[in-house]
């Protein structure tokens, strides 16, 4: 088992790094979607005001 320890450790560290990258990507997309939703809501508000 010890002869594979470095290989297993490397694979585990790579896995953790990939998971962190994935969650970072999700966080960035979530933030982008919130900005987009706010902008669309503001545009809709202006549209409704223009109708009145």
Q: Could you characterize what this model shows?
A:
This protein is mainly alpha-helical and 52 residues long. The chain has a domain at 17-52. The protein is built from one helix and no strands. The longest helix has 47 residues, at 5-51. It is rod-shaped, with a radius of gyration of 23 Å. The model has no long low-confidence stretch (mean pLDDT 96).
Could you outline the blueprint of secondary structure elements for this entry?
Blueprint: H1 5-51
Gist?
The protein is an all-alpha fold and 52 residues long. Helix content is 90%, strand content 0%. The protein contains one helix and no strands.
Global outline:
rod-shaped
Instruction: Supply Rg.
Output: 23 Å
Output the structural class: mainly alpha
- What string, H for helix and E for strand, traces the elements in order? H
Total E-strand runs: 0
| Alpha plus pi helix count | 1
DSSP helix fraction: over 70%
- Note the beta-strand portion: under 5%
Distance between the termini: 75 Å
Roughly what is the average pLDDT, rounded to an integer? Answer: 96
Instruction: Indicate the low-confidence ranges by residue numbers.
Output: none
Characterize the main sheet: none
Task: List descriptors.
mainly alpha, rod-shaped
């Amino acid at each position: 088992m010890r002869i594979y320890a470095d290989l297993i450790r490397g694979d585990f560290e790579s896995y953790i790094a990939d998971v962190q990258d994935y969650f970072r990507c999700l966080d960035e997309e979530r933030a982008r979607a919130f900005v987009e939703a706010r902008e669309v809501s503001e545009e809709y508000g202006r549209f409704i005001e223009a109708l009145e």
